[in-house]
Specification:
- With about 110 residues, this protein is of the alpha+beta class.
- It is built from three helices and five strands.
- The protein has a single domain, classed as SH3 type barrels.
- It has a five-stranded antiparallel sheet with strand order 4-3-2-1-5.
- Helix 1 packs across helix 3.
- The protein is globular.
Length: about 110
């Protein structure tokens, strides 16, 4: 894990975004870079909530033909793909920083 991706509250989210997207030339590459960061450093599965229902977030990445990160969530043994921005997560500090940096990049 990179230094900037560690759960260090003194590091600015903009610095984390810059580290994740350093070699990106367009939005597709940025989304892929965020997916790579989540795959490398996020602690998944983690609990979350979608429209008031408890779910387990199992994967975060780029979905088919979508221009945003999606989360594959499991509830009652079934998988659902939901926009990452539509989920309330209870992540560990490192995953929380990745999520907050993605939200900042999107402008949420």
């Amino acid at each position: 894990m990179s230094r900037a991706r560690r759960a260090d509250p003194d590091l600015d989210l903009d610095d984390l975004i810059a580290e994740i997207t350093v070699d990106c030339y367009d939005e597709d590459e940025v989304l892929q870079a965020f997916q790579n960061a989540f795959e490398a450093d996020a602690s998944l599965p983690c609990p979350g909530t979608v429209i008031g229902e408890s779910v387990e977030v199992r994967w975060i990445g780029v979905g088919d033909r979508r221009r945003e990160l999606i989360a594959t969530c499991q509830r009652a043994g079934r998988d659902y793909d939901v926009s990452l921005l539509d989920i309330s997560l209870q992540p560990d500090p490192t995953t929380s920083r990745l999520l907050n940096s993605y939200r900042r990049w999107v402008g949420d």
